[in-house]
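Z., the sequence and structure:
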Amino acid sequence: MITISAFADEIAKDLDTQIKVCKENGISCIDVRAIDGVNVSKFTTKSARDYAKQLNDASFTVPCIGSPIGKIRIDEPFEPHLDLLKHCCEIAHIFDARYVRVFSFYGPEGGNIADYRSKVMDQIASMVEVASDAEIVLLMENERGIYGEKPEAIKDIFQTIQSDNLKFLFDPANFVTVGISPYDDAWQKGLAELTHYFHMKDWKFGGDSGVPVGEGDGQIEQILADAKVRGFEGYMTLEPHLSHGGQFSGFTGPELFTKAVDALKKLCEKVGLEYK
């Protein structure tokens, strides 16, 4: 059984509309990334409590917050970023979320992040230490341009830093944007065993926005079919980017969001993967 969640800021800025459209689509689970145009990492504890109450009153759960932690250059000051992670962990607890989504750093301007492997690992280890102290699990997402862009680098991270407070988040579309076939060249090459969480968006090679899952080059049907065989249970968070996608967010809108939900449910039913 999987649980369908959503980056509901792709629907609208305000939480009322996010909740309404999710309910209309049978979803009662949100990964909080932004509300009222403010990223979750910038929430005050008061605003987080207000939003958490609104979600709880609507019988919604929040498994994860979509922080931008790790989306900085490796040569930028790290201590302030680590303090921001501590704040994100505090915000996650307010939402009763177990997970905080993170990334693994960009290279310096004009530089290759692969040349900074040791520093990447040191900084991730520091992030994991913060998460462990806060009893939070970090979800490390593959993303274009960061150290964990490609399968070999992702495996390197998880072979180097082995912790129950660091898990892998598989995003098929992000692999497509860097020319990788997600099932053939990532899932089957060691990432299936690492995957703990999914972001569900699809993409076409050379595309500039997302497409409903199953309509792009993300090989999502094959991934879901194998996840079913492997007995995967966990979250699949819709992040459709059907209107546009950017470095820190994307947008889909209410009507296209419904199309995105329907496409994911259809694929799950096709491969026999039960969902709620």
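The first strand starts at residue 2 and ends at 6. The chain is about 40% helix and 15% strand.

Let me know what you think.
H.
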